Amino acid sequence: MGIFSPGFVGRRRDANPLLPPGQYEVSNFPVLSAGPTPKIKLDDWAFSLRAGNGDLKAWSWETLMGQPIEEITVDLHCVTRWSQFGMGWRGVSLDVLLDGVDTSTTPYAMAGCYGGYTTNVRTSDLLGGKAWIAFEFDGKPLAPEHGGPARLLIPHLYLWKSAKWLNSLTMMDHHELGFWEMYGYNDIGDPWKEERYS
Ligand SMILES: Nc1nc2c(c(=O)[nH]1)N[C@H]1C(S)=C(S)[C@@H](COP(=O)(O)O)O[C@H]1N2
Ligand SMILES: [Mo]
Q1: Residue 28: which region, alpha, beta or left (left: phi > 0; alpha: psi -120 to 50)?
Q2: How far is the CA of 84 from the centre of ligand 2 (A)?
Q3: Whose C-alpha lies nearest to ligand 1, atom 5?
Q4: What residue intervals traverse the membrane (predicted)?
Protein backbone atom coordinates (compact mmCIF):
# COMPACT_ATOMS: atom_id res chain seq x y z
CA MET A 1 0.00 0.00 0.00
CA GLY A 2 1.54 3.31 -1.06
CA ILE A 3 1.43 6.47 0.99
CA PHE A 4 -0.05 8.49 -1.88
CA SER A 5 -3.07 7.75 -4.02
CA PRO A 6 -2.12 7.22 -7.72
CA GLY A 7 -3.59 10.62 -8.65
CA PHE A 8 -1.52 12.39 -6.05
CA VAL A 9 1.68 10.59 -7.02
CA GLY A 10 1.18 11.72 -10.63
CA ARG A 11 1.13 15.32 -9.51
CA ARG A 12 4.29 15.21 -7.46
CA ARG A 13 6.95 17.42 -8.99
CA ASP A 14 9.67 14.83 -8.86
CA ALA A 15 7.37 12.22 -10.38
CA ASN A 16 7.66 13.83 -13.82
CA PRO A 17 10.87 12.75 -15.57
CA LEU A 18 10.49 15.66 -18.03
CA LEU A 19 10.83 18.21 -15.24
CA PRO A 20 14.41 19.26 -14.39
CA PRO A 21 15.30 19.50 -10.68
CA GLY A 22 13.70 22.41 -8.82
CA GLN A 23 11.22 23.25 -11.60
CA TYR A 24 7.41 23.26 -11.65
CA GLU A 25 5.09 23.03 -14.64
CA VAL A 26 3.13 25.97 -16.06
CA SER A 27 1.03 26.35 -19.19
CA ASN A 28 0.68 30.14 -19.52
CA PHE A 29 4.12 31.02 -21.04
CA PRO A 30 5.12 33.84 -18.65
CA VAL A 31 6.84 36.96 -20.02
CA LEU A 32 10.19 37.97 -18.49
CA SER A 33 12.03 40.97 -19.92
CA ALA A 34 14.73 43.16 -18.40
CA GLY A 35 13.49 46.28 -20.22
CA PRO A 36 10.85 47.61 -22.58
CA THR A 37 9.68 45.59 -25.58
CA PRO A 38 11.25 46.98 -28.77
CA LYS A 39 8.92 47.32 -31.75
CA ILE A 40 10.68 46.21 -34.94
CA LYS A 41 9.04 46.30 -38.37
CA LEU A 42 9.78 43.30 -40.55
CA ASP A 43 11.11 45.63 -43.28
CA ASP A 44 13.66 47.02 -40.82
CA TRP A 45 14.57 43.70 -39.25
CA ALA A 46 18.06 42.32 -39.88
CA PHE A 47 20.22 39.63 -38.40
CA SER A 48 24.02 39.69 -38.70
CA LEU A 49 26.48 36.93 -38.08
CA ARG A 50 29.73 38.55 -36.98
CA ALA A 51 33.28 37.59 -36.17
CA GLY A 52 36.14 39.69 -34.80
CA ASN A 53 36.83 41.23 -38.16
CA GLY A 54 33.29 42.27 -39.12
CA ASP A 55 30.08 40.87 -40.58
CA LEU A 56 30.32 37.36 -42.00
CA LYS A 57 26.75 37.14 -43.29
CA ALA A 58 23.49 39.02 -42.86
CA TRP A 59 19.84 38.20 -43.41
CA SER A 60 16.81 40.38 -44.01
CA TRP A 61 13.37 39.07 -43.06
CA GLU A 62 12.87 38.00 -46.65
CA THR A 63 16.14 36.11 -46.93
CA LEU A 64 15.58 34.46 -43.54
CA MET A 65 12.17 33.23 -44.72
CA GLY A 66 13.93 31.76 -47.76
CA GLN A 67 15.91 29.39 -45.54
CA PRO A 68 14.69 25.88 -44.68
CA ILE A 69 12.10 26.27 -41.91
CA GLU A 70 11.64 23.63 -39.21
CA GLU A 71 8.73 22.80 -36.93
CA ILE A 72 10.09 22.57 -33.40
CA THR A 73 8.27 21.09 -30.38
CA VAL A 74 10.21 21.59 -27.17
CA ASP A 75 10.01 21.93 -23.40
CA LEU A 76 11.31 25.24 -22.05
CA HIS A 77 12.83 25.79 -18.61
CA CYS A 78 13.20 29.20 -16.96
CA VAL A 79 15.68 29.83 -14.15
CA THR A 80 12.78 31.39 -12.18
CA ARG A 81 11.63 27.74 -11.92
CA TRP A 82 8.78 27.43 -14.37
CA SER A 83 8.87 24.86 -17.15
CA GLN A 84 6.40 24.53 -19.98
CA PHE A 85 6.11 21.34 -22.02
CA GLY A 86 5.38 20.68 -25.68
CA MET A 87 5.73 24.22 -27.01
CA GLY A 88 5.37 24.41 -30.80
CA TRP A 89 7.59 26.77 -32.76
CA ARG A 90 8.76 27.40 -36.31
CA GLY A 91 12.24 28.62 -37.03
CA VAL A 92 15.51 28.25 -38.90
CA SER A 93 18.24 26.06 -37.43
CA LEU A 94 21.52 27.69 -36.44
CA ASP A 95 23.14 24.83 -38.33
CA VAL A 96 21.73 26.38 -41.52
CA LEU A 97 22.83 29.91 -40.62
CA LEU A 98 26.34 28.80 -39.61
CA ASP A 99 26.73 26.49 -42.60
CA GLY A 100 29.99 27.24 -44.38
CA VAL A 101 31.33 29.25 -41.44
CA ASP A 102 34.51 27.83 -39.94
CA THR A 103 33.73 27.72 -36.22
CA SER A 104 36.87 25.77 -35.28
CA THR A 105 38.57 28.92 -33.93
CA THR A 106 35.42 30.44 -32.35
CA PRO A 107 34.21 28.21 -29.48
CA TYR A 108 32.28 31.13 -27.92
CA ALA A 109 29.41 33.25 -29.16
CA MET A 110 27.53 36.32 -27.98
CA ALA A 111 23.93 36.94 -28.96
CA GLY A 112 22.99 40.61 -29.39
CA CYS A 113 19.48 42.04 -29.42
CA TYR A 114 17.42 45.06 -30.34
CA GLY A 115 17.28 46.88 -26.99
CA GLY A 116 20.80 45.91 -25.99
CA TYR A 117 20.38 42.57 -24.16
CA THR A 118 23.25 40.13 -24.61
CA THR A 119 23.83 36.53 -23.60
CA ASN A 120 26.87 34.31 -24.08
CA VAL A 121 26.73 30.71 -25.25
CA ARG A 122 29.22 28.10 -26.32
CA THR A 123 29.29 27.53 -30.07
CA SER A 124 28.74 23.83 -29.34
CA ASP A 125 25.36 24.76 -27.79
CA LEU A 126 24.30 26.36 -31.08
CA LEU A 127 25.18 23.49 -33.42
CA GLY A 128 23.86 19.95 -33.91
CA GLY A 129 20.11 20.62 -34.11
CA LYS A 130 19.97 22.30 -30.68
CA ALA A 131 19.28 25.97 -31.52
CA TRP A 132 17.08 28.01 -33.83
CA ILE A 133 16.05 31.51 -34.76
CA ALA A 134 12.34 31.17 -34.01
CA PHE A 135 9.66 33.47 -35.39
CA GLU A 136 6.40 31.58 -34.84
CA PHE A 137 4.92 30.21 -31.64
CA ASP A 138 1.70 28.23 -31.34
CA GLY A 139 0.88 28.77 -35.03
CA LYS A 140 1.13 32.56 -34.88
CA PRO A 141 3.85 35.14 -35.51
CA LEU A 142 5.94 35.43 -32.36
CA ALA A 143 4.40 38.11 -30.11
CA PRO A 144 6.63 41.15 -29.44
CA GLU A 145 6.71 40.49 -25.68
CA HIS A 146 8.07 36.99 -26.34
CA GLY A 147 10.79 38.30 -28.66
CA GLY A 148 9.06 38.85 -31.99
CA PRO A 149 9.84 39.29 -34.80
CA ALA A 150 12.45 36.63 -33.98
CA ARG A 151 14.30 35.21 -31.01
CA LEU A 152 16.99 32.71 -30.32
CA LEU A 153 15.58 29.39 -29.12
CA ILE A 154 18.01 27.16 -27.19
CA PRO A 155 15.64 24.80 -25.36
CA HIS A 156 18.33 22.65 -23.72
CA LEU A 157 19.55 25.68 -21.71
CA TYR A 158 17.67 27.91 -19.25
CA LEU A 159 15.50 30.39 -21.11
CA TRP A 160 17.61 33.50 -20.42
CA LYS A 161 19.97 32.14 -23.10
CA SER A 162 17.12 32.32 -25.65
CA ALA A 163 17.68 35.96 -26.55
CA LYS A 164 14.52 37.82 -27.60
CA TRP A 165 14.52 40.39 -30.45
CA LEU A 166 17.68 38.79 -31.80
CA ASN A 167 19.77 41.03 -34.01
CA SER A 168 23.28 39.59 -34.08
CA LEU A 169 25.43 36.65 -33.22
CA THR A 170 29.14 37.31 -32.74
CA MET A 171 31.47 34.35 -33.01
CA MET A 172 34.45 34.75 -30.67
CA ASP A 173 37.78 33.07 -30.04
CA HIS A 174 37.58 34.12 -26.37
CA HIS A 175 35.10 33.93 -23.51
CA GLU A 176 32.90 36.90 -22.54
CA LEU A 177 29.89 37.24 -20.25
CA GLY A 178 26.49 38.49 -21.37
CA PHE A 179 23.97 40.66 -19.48
CA TRP A 180 22.60 38.25 -16.86
CA GLU A 181 25.84 36.28 -16.74
CA MET A 182 27.60 39.44 -15.51
CA TYR A 183 24.99 39.63 -12.72
CA GLY A 184 25.80 36.11 -11.58
CA TYR A 185 23.72 33.85 -13.75
CA ASN A 186 25.55 30.70 -14.78
CA ASP A 187 27.94 30.72 -17.69
CA ILE A 188 26.38 27.62 -19.30
CA GLY A 189 22.88 27.24 -17.80
CA ASP A 190 22.02 23.55 -18.13
CA PRO A 191 18.65 23.02 -16.35
CA TRP A 192 19.31 19.29 -15.83
CA LYS A 193 22.46 20.16 -13.84
CA GLU A 194 20.65 23.08 -12.15
CA GLU A 195 23.29 25.52 -13.38
CA ARG A 196 21.30 28.57 -12.26
CA TYR A 197 23.96 30.86 -10.81
CA SER A 198 27.71 31.10 -10.92
N1 LIG B 1 16.44 40.61 -25.53
C2 LIG B 1 16.10 39.99 -24.40
N3 LIG B 1 16.03 38.65 -24.41
C4 LIG B 1 15.69 37.99 -23.29
C5 LIG B 1 15.43 38.68 -22.09
C6 LIG B 1 15.50 40.10 -22.11
O7 LIG B 1 15.28 40.77 -21.09
N8 LIG B 1 15.83 40.71 -23.29
N9 LIG B 1 15.11 37.99 -20.94
C10 LIG B 1 15.60 36.61 -20.89
C11 LIG B 1 15.06 35.92 -19.76
S12 LIG B 1 15.78 36.22 -18.27
C13 LIG B 1 14.09 34.99 -19.91
S14 LIG B 1 13.58 34.06 -18.58
C15 LIG B 1 13.43 34.75 -21.21
C16 LIG B 1 11.94 34.93 -21.08
O17 LIG B 1 11.31 34.70 -22.30
P18 LIG B 1 9.75 34.93 -22.38
O19 LIG B 1 9.47 36.34 -21.93
O20 LIG B 1 9.35 34.68 -23.78
O21 LIG B 1 9.15 33.94 -21.43
O22 LIG B 1 13.90 35.62 -22.22
C23 LIG B 1 15.28 35.87 -22.18
N24 LIG B 1 15.63 36.64 -23.33
MO1 LIG C 1 14.90 34.77 -16.76
Answers
A1: alpha
A2: 14
A3: 33
A4: none
